[in-house]
Write a structure and sequence with these properties.
mainly alpha; 0% strand
């Protein structure tokens, strides 16, 4: 009976060791893949989301200002046209 128990204990230790090794291998593979993906993204010269949103907001503000100034020019031209008459 002791031999059977010893075999089961050995199998349990081997399984625990294999699970730990598999977990470590998975962690190492994830780190390697993360580094490779980051290198690929860096080489693609992509714009970060924060930068894109900041420029988008600046463009919206510029568009609103341009529309405001356009309305002001139209009003001033109308006033000048009224004075010329």
């Amino acid at each position: 009976m002791q031999t059977g128990k010893r075999v089961l204990d050995d199998l349990a230790r081997a399984a625990t060791g294999a699970a730990g090794a598999a977990g470590a291998l998975r962690d190492e593979m994830e780190a390697i893949l993360r580094d490779r993906l980051q290198s690929l993204l860096d080489s693609m010269d992509l714009v970060r989301r924060e930068d894109f949103e900041a420029v988008q907001e600046m463009a919206q503000n510029a568009r609103m200002e341009q529309e405001r100034l356009e309305a002001r020019v139209i009003a001033l031209e109308a006033r000048l046209a009224d004075k010329d008459e």
